[in-house]
Amino acid sequence: MLIKEVMHPDPVAIPADTKLSEAYKIMQDKGIRHLPVIENFKIVGIVTDRDLRLATSKLAEHPFDPQTSVNNIMSRPVKTTSPEDPIESAAQLMRELKIGCLPVVEENSLVGIITNSDLLDALILLTGVHQPSGRLDIRLLDKTGELARLTKLLAEKKVNIHSILTYPEKDRSIRLVLRLATMEIKIIAQTICNAGFEVIWPPNIACVK
Amino acid sequence: MCQIIYHPSYSKYNLGESHPFNPIRIEMVVDLLTELNYWKEPINPQIVVPEELYSIHDKKYVDEVEAVNNGKFIEDIEQIGLGTVDDPVVPGMAEGARIQSGGTLLGAELLIQNKAKKVLQFGGGFHHAHKNFASGFCIYNDLALAIKKMIDAGLYVLYLDIDVHHGDGVQEIFYSNENVMTLSIHESGEYLFPGTGWIHELGKGMGRSLKLNLPLEPFTEGESYLEVFEAILEPAMKWFRPYALVVQSGSDAHFSDPLADLMLTTQDYQKIFKKIIEFSNLYSNGRVIFTFGGGYTLTAAPRIWSILYMLLFNFELPDELPPGWISKWEKKLNKKMPVKLHDPNPAYDPIPRKEEITKRNRELVRRLLDSVSADWL
């Protein structure tokens, strides 16, 4: 999954001489938290709602006046990403830098923005249930042909696979969660178990090992 | 008094010998009640014509279902959920689904015209049928058809779904409707088909806080089930005050069911049915329609639905099943039948996670009530 598939295109951006009060109003009106700062079509900084609140807080030693321009408080240089990058690279960068968004830049111009909410949406898309289906949870050996053997069995039973999710486990095994278009998961699970696969869900499948 | 609705041609809805949704389930109940001398003459419903289904399904969907049913080849019929392992194309299935829809619809008409207060429909309950696709053994949504009839007459309806699977089709069709409350109690979609029915699915727009779901932990037992069932159903009915209840009484939350993992016994079902009748007397003027639904153990489903019937007619529950019925069905199915109406006690080995399951279900109902409390004024 690429950044361009989940990013917000045409993000709201502001010039560097925007006043803090104006930036605050834009965030309120648009319901957003991040504003890239642009000069000569190039991104020069970024302000977040948190930057604004901290800069103007009465608790600060020298609070900024709401009439100050954003270039006094914005973060720079800005970490950016590209529309063709995979979303996991953005997620890793955001976690590493402990930041909540990345402007998306292509040929020096701002084309989008990706925030942690977009990454959560991507997670929902990857793991969620989008069509009526039952869950089959398998522990698979991490070796060639195992998945093919499994899906062949399902195809023979005429069961459509709506989604497959995998993640690594210890001891060279792979957890595989499939969403199958059938109510009869237990009956399918028995066939799969009989073929030598380890079925985690549904439980208590009486199969011939 | 209760009115029975049934038609012998309900059995046309037959998805094949090895398919779990077997019309023999209904036949076994009728036969058991006949053997007990409890069987009353049912009213026969009329078959609904395809056009009547346009009120809840897309016209294109209905027309395609009827076309393949009549042998027409349609490219990529899987797009509407047919020709799949759950919903194979079987000649006669559309007529079967339409006559059963007619039954549930007749129940609604009897209630609207005040000709009956309690109705037991010996079929129907196709809660997985969606607006424009078939799913989970269901083609036409008889429940939605009946509910639509009632709300079009200006009435409020509470749809209660105790089938072990989430009642996704009915919920979807009325998701933003303000005259229908849906409450589905099922095994959590994290594990079981269809994968939906979470507590955050609360309805949209005017239907907000009127769509309720209790996704229970796998291996939930009767005691915990009844606790959370009452904890949500009573406040919901008290607040919503529906004209009538429509109940999808699937019996597949029974511990022996081959498709799911809840642990209800026949004794639990008796308590659940009693509660529903009690609440309908208190909060919906005694008006309630029960339909059948899921329930795929031939040794359990007939007993559970017979119990519902006997409770509705105030018949005495026999301890033992009639020997004639037992021997007849043992011979027909080549399967050992239970001797007693109720399950043995205990019916199964103790569940190791019992305490945790009870705690989690309790927490679930609390969170659900928290979410709707702001709207239930």
What does the model show?
The complex is a heterodimer of chains A (209) and B (377). With 209 residues, chain A is α+β, with helices and mostly antiparallel strands. Helices cover 32% and strands 28% of the residues of chain A. Chain A is built from seven helices and ten strands. In chain A, strand 8 and strand 9 (173-180) form a beta hairpin. With 377 residues, chain B is α/β, with parallel strands linked by helices. Chain B has ten helices and seven strands. Chain B has a seven-stranded parallel sheet with strand order 1-2-7-6-3-4-5, with helices on both faces. In chain B, helix 6 runs parallel beside helix 10. At the A-B interface, helix 7 of A face loops of B.
Summing up helix and strand content along with how strands pair, one would put the structural category of chain A as alpha+beta
How are strands sequenced across the largest beta sheet of chain B?
A: 1-2-7-6-3-4-5
- The value of Rg of chain B in angstroms is 19 Å
Oligomer: heterodimer
Assigned CATH superfamily of the largest domain in chain A: CBS-domain
Unreliable residue stretches of chain B: none
Keywords, separated by commas or semicolons:
heterodimer, A: 209 residues, alpha+beta, CBS-domain, Alpha-Beta Plaits, four-stranded antiparallel beta sheet, three-stranded antiparallel beta sheet, 32% helix, 28% strand, elongated, B: 377 residues, alpha/beta, Arginase, Chain A, 10% strand
